Amino acid sequence: MSLSSAVLWWEEWQLRILVLASIFIQYVLFFSIWMRRAPILRRLRVLVWVAYTAGDAVAIYALATLFNRRNQTSDGESSALEVLWAPILLIHLGGQTCISAYSLEDNELWKRHTITLVSQVTVALYVFCKWWSGGKMLLAAAILLFVIGILKFAQKPWALRTASFNSLQASSTVFLLPEAQRERRIYTLEEYVQAAKYCVLETKIDSQHEYESQCDYMFIDLSAPYSFRIAELPSFLMLVDKRAYRDLQCSLGNAFDILYTRITSGQTTLGVASVLLLPFLALASAVLFATSHKDGLNEKDITVTYILFGCSTMLEFLFPFIAISSLFPFGARLFGEYISGWHDMVSQYNVISFSVRKKKPTFLMKLATFSFLREFINQHWYIQHVPIAFQVTGVVRQHIVDGWKKYIHDAASYKRFSELRGQWALRRHHQLGWSLNKPFDESVLIWHIATDLCFYHPNTSPQGRQGEATQHSREISNYMIYLLLIRPEMLMPGTRSDLFTLASDIIVENSKGSLDMTEENLAKEILNMSMLPSAVDMVSNALKLSKALMELGDEQERWTVIQGVWMEMLCYSASRCRGYLHAKSLGDGGEFLSIIWLLLSVMGMETLADRHQRSELPQEEATAEQEAAASTSHSGRADQSEDNISLV
After folding, report:
1. Distance of CA 516 to the CA centre of its chain
2. Which end of the chain is more exposed for a tag (fewer CB within 10 A), N or C?
3. Which residues contact 400 (CB under 8 A, 6 or more apart)?
4. Which of 97, 219, 99, 101 shows the shortest CA–CA distance to 165?
5. Which runs of consecutive H residues, i.e. helices, occur in 132-186?
6. 514 pLDDT band (50/70/90 cuts)?
7. CA 188 → CA 180, 342, 413, 567, distances in Å?
């Protein structure tokens, strides 16, 4: 095929290819909810991003191409069906119910989408009114398509505006205000702690109890009043572990639906009417087209139009079909997990595994030519996911209950409990306390390496490696180091992710690098490594810590202590992560840290928003404020006396 013939072919097929590509993109966007929420499909999220970015661009480009083609040709009948594609492109611009925003920032662009709505509807109506030349039945089909297109397109900026930060904050503020019918008691912090402790001590688990927590306000960094939290606490405490965990999963799923989809808008009266009406309008337009006269129309355009009508109608019926199917057992098993709940996976990463790959590169790393590409692949391709969220959540829940029963007695101890990051677990082993007297990111890295060294230590028995506390310790350790490297902003404000690379470089530089390098071999090599001269070296500190841990005589006690430290670190990190960051992570598949964060809140503990909105001032500030107030009052009385004297 010559260049000129290729150009002619492209000019003939350009618009057809664009509209077919647009409908294909809509199918990708429809099924994006599974690709975004299922960890097993995490590597397909780049396809969702491409489809979300290209969806509007392709549809707008197709409308512009249609406008230019009709401007340049006087062939009315042969291309009449092309004009019928304009409302279909409007439907595509409206997007899909399963995705309204790809990232949290997209919700703040609702004004831009409103302008796009007005401009593209104007262009589509202009093209249709100026160049329409079809029959009455085709005209009726086109009118139905315009109704569908304008309604769906208008839903998009409305959904984005509803999910924007200011809108969510306004609606949640109304939710948290005291109701007019009853007065809520205003608790001081001390009164709240005593009431919450009483709830924990007196509330019994009821296997028949059902409850759905209301945590949406937390994702926009709002703090609930103490009265609201006291009212909700007994209901959650009554849940068995499995039901409580399921409730936390549903809270994440609901937050995802609110922030990134239009599913919640479909639960309103107008939304339900739209979901049920639009598919039948699409079906009616397809029937009108199928029964209309097509004499003199281009056969290729007829075929493309049939494809567009058939695929668009099927797409409109898919969502209500899945929603209705989820109400039945078979549909719930097939669709329910990634529509109404959340996954059970916890991300895992490991310094020693990373170092082994640097010493003995895998085939994929050898293919990467540039060093920055090798680092990217090493950091993101080799992330593992293990289904242990339920088990770890149960352990953390028991840790919080024990804290209420054994540690928290008043407001001061309540505040201290939120500050723990391993101190309670080491209360009988003060010789290990030095490992926590460092910046949090350094402590995490030191304990991570030390945990692996203890696991691979020759004195650790096979039974010890298979123990529940051992497995939980390593799983939480690997998750925390994943946060350090991949999501440092969630681990702790100011976290230095480069500490991970620094530690791995030290390990690689000081290892012999044998050909049969494995994680266990490298760990044993580190155990035999002499202490490095630098006093601030994290690998040396980890080696020192591991030796101190191995000196604990009882193996079960050792791993119980290690597990306790990791639980406290996990809770410490979760309580210091902003709700905004938890909401943002949902767009990338979510983080297990968010479940722990929700658990802390519903169990009565402090989160970052609660700490910042605490009504009581610290003791020093309160004393200073009282002295200042007294001084001001005395000064005011003196001034008044002077005024009275002058008046006399």
Report:
1. 39
2. C
3. 571, 599, 600, 603, 605
4. 219
5. 136-162, 165-176
6. low
7. 22, 35, 15, 29
> Residue 263, SS3?
coil
**Under 8 Å between Cβ of 278 and 315:** no
Whether 644 has a pLDDT exceeding 70, the answer reads no
Cβ-proximal residues to 58 (8 Å cutoff; 6+ apart), any chain = 18, 21, 22, 25, 92
pLDDT, averaged across the chain = 84
Q: How many CB atoms lie within 10 A of CB 586?
A: 23
Instruction: Supply the pLDDT for residue 613.
Output: 79
The values of phi and psi at residue 213, to 5°, are -70, 155
Give the span between the Cα atoms of 536 and 534, in whole angstroms.
5
Burial class (CB in 10 A: 0-12, 13-18, 19+), 44: middle
Q: Are 145 and 285 in contact (CB under 8 A)?
A: yes
Count of Cβ atoms closer than 10 Å to residue 637 Cβ: 10
Which residue has 């928290």 as its token pair?
408
CB neighbours of 348 closer than 8 A, spacing ≥ 6? Answer: 383, 384, 385, 386, 475, 478, 479, 482
Per-residue confidence band for 631, with pLDDT thresholds at 50, 70 and 90: very low
Give CA–CA dist 132/119, Å, rounded: 20
Most confident residue range from 160-164, 261-265, 325-329? 160-164
Supply the pLDDT for residue 222: 87
Q: DSSP string spanning 345-358?
A: -EEE--HHHHHHHH
